[in-house]
Amino acid sequence: MTDTPLNMVEADQTLVTRLRAWWSGETANPAKRVQFDRPLTPWLFLLPQLAVVVIFFYWPSVQAVTSSFYLEDPFGFGATFVGMENYADALNSSEYLGTAAFTAFFCVVVTTLALGIGLLMAVKADKVIRGAESYKTLLISVYAIAPPVAGLIGMMFFDMHMGPLKDLAAFFGYDLKVGINYWDTATALIVIAVWKQIPYNFIFFLSGLQSVPVSVREAALIDAQSGWRRFWDITLPLLAPTAFFLLVINITYTMFDTFPIIDVIVKDKPANNPMTLVYKVYLDGFKGNDIGGSSAQSVILMGVVALLTVLQFRFLERRVHYG
Amino acid sequence: MAELTLKSVGKTYAGGVDAVTDVNIDIKDGEFIVLVGPSGCGKSTLLRMVAGLETVTRGDVHIGGRRVNDLDPAERDIAMVFQNYALYPHMSVRDNMAYGLKNRGESKAVIEERVAEAARMLELGQYLDRKPRALSGGQRQRVAMGRAIVRQPKAFLFDEPLSNLDAKLRVSMRMEIRKLQQRLGTTSLYVTHDQLEAMTLADRLVVLNGGRVEQIGAPLEVYRKPASTFVASFIGAPAMSLLDAQIEGGQLLLAGQALAGVGIAPGPVTLGLRAEDLRIVANGLRMRVEYVEELGAQRIVHGMVGDQAVAVIDQHDTPLGPDVRIAVDPTRLHLFDARSGRRMETRLHRVAEPAQ
Ligand SMILES: Nc1ncnc2c1ncn2[C@@H]1O[C@H](COP(=O)(O)OP(=O)(O)OP(=O)(O)O)[C@@H](O)[C@H]1O
Ligand SMILES: [Mg+2]
């Protein structure tokens, strides 16, 4: 796209004909111009995507960083520059640190369970793959449910007054109080978040398993009698790229995409419920009207995510085989 | 090392496809058996039943005197070389070869020694620490061979191991496989659809057609006395010419001319003519020349006798006219039943007066 059609046009043409030729993309040697005849066209195609990135990513990021250095008047009458104070406040607050600890815990537990159960189901489904079409559809359909709906359904299961799980717990002599008891709520959050993510992991693991060449499996069948050994030595290493991809996706999911689930479960409930850092950013910013503090929190979060991503790629990807 | 026996083995796939029907083969210890036949005739199915990768629907498979129908592949003490090599992509060449031994609880010292020995035999020494993707097709093929050798199994099973290699490499690997097998003396079952490969490798050939055994025999025996028109046309290049002929009054007639005297009842028969048994002569059957393949050492003349195609191998390079005369030694004729295609054993003798 370096040279424009203008260069190709004869010199004795008038400006109008030249412009027309340029606009309609006529060239002296059309065979050479394969992709875009008009230099504006690619930009036109790129524009919506660029706009989305700028408006919804760069601009808010810049805003967040800026406002994290200010103490904003809750009623919108101006802001005072306070330097790093918002950061110091956040990092010294035991509530913030508690939320951070829960987020880490939540992240580890949900990712482990969602990946583990997804893999287990995929391995089982892979064995009976002929009958798996309906099985697959059944499990994907769970993923088709949007998180708020999953949260709602989960909430119904865990409902204080009529939830079946509450009855089940009561049957075993336990009083389940989701939204009130910290660990009851945490359990509910984990169960719903895991439940929601399993189908996604299942599908990817299943297709990963199916892409292990049949003959390689058969060679392993001759080399090793124990199915567990074959899985551990052959299948799992060949599944590693899929697993790594899913690990990144799952961590991102637990940190960010669980927002609607948490919202449904803890919204308008008395304080001291478990939540993730993202939800706390929202709560402090929009409910607590502490824009500066919440901005500082989100900048910290950005840093954590950046760090995690770097760590994942540096230390894990190296040990993954892309055969 | 062991003998390998298939007794009335049959396979019906789910969905009712009869891939293999009533196959009986007795393989002696150390024998190299080649299963050959056209695509879809059930060669792989048969081999995979021996390996344990497919269940045996009917009959029994014995390896070393033990019935193995219900054993896992890993328990059968066989090693298999796959068409696409099936190397473990995440393991080094060394680990690929060692994996089967590790799982059989061999000691480190034994494993190391066997891998080193195999690497030496296959000239893989400098590649031991490479991953398969960093090897050429021929080298991968060797690793697959190495993986089979280190195991020192009762039998080697090969499923078209050379068909992914280029023609030249195929010929040299073919020789290497044969030499290795003779040196190790391991019973081998080898699948191919390449009749030349089959002829050159086999102690005995098993020609399969539509899941049934057409003929079992040493390569030359199969070549010289094909049991059916199917075998006749499959083994040998150029393929044996098969022509409709008549028997009348104790004489074999082709296009109205007597070729030989026979002692069978009158009626139609299928006559088989090997190209190298035919000679271009001054007096004989008239053949209209269609085209000539020059091969350097010889030429193959394709033509028509009456309205039937015939190929003749000719050692001369004198120019040919539009018509030539061909002749054949009556003892070199093959006769097959016109209906069933089975070989007819009969004594053929020269007719008193050469045909004009
Ligand atoms: N898993 C299967 N299910 C049903 N039918 C099968 C299955 N595998 C093979 N077949 C059928 O069994 C027959 C024999 O197949 P097989 O793979 O043994 O042929 P082959 O002789 O090895 O052919 P090729 O030379 O092409 O490899 C074919 O008709 C094939 O369609
Ligand atoms: Mg096959």
TrEMBL record, chain B:
Give the similarity note: Belongs to the ABC transporter superfamily.
Q: Please state every residue range assigned to the domain named ABC transporter.
A: 4-235
> Looking at the keywords, is Translocase present?
yes
Matches recorded under Pfam families: ABC_tran, TOBE_2
Q: Which InterPro entries match?
A: AAA+_ATPase (IPR003593), ABC_transporter-like_ATP-bd (IPR003439), ABC_transporter-like_CS (IPR017871), ABC_transpr_MalK-like (IPR015855), ABC_transpr_MalK/UgpC-like (IPR047641), Mo/tungstate-bd_C_term_dom (IPR008995), NA-bd_OB-fold (IPR012340), P-loop_NTPase (IPR027417)
> Which SUPFAM superfamilies does the UniProt entry name for this protein?
MOP-like, P-loop containing nucleoside triphosphate hydrolases
Query: Which molecular function GO terms apply here?
Result: ATP binding
What PANTHER family does its record include? MALTODEXTRIN IMPORT ATP-BINDING PROTEIN MSMX, SN-GLYCEROL-3-PHOSPHATE IMPORT ATP-BINDING PROTEIN UGPC
Name-wise, this protein is Sn-glycerol-3-phosphate import ATP-binding protein UgpC
Domain of life, source organism:
Bacteria
Keywords annotated in UniProt: ATP-binding, Cell inner membrane, Cell membrane, Membrane, Nucleotide-binding, Sugar transport, Translocase, Transport
Q: Where is the signal peptide?
A: none
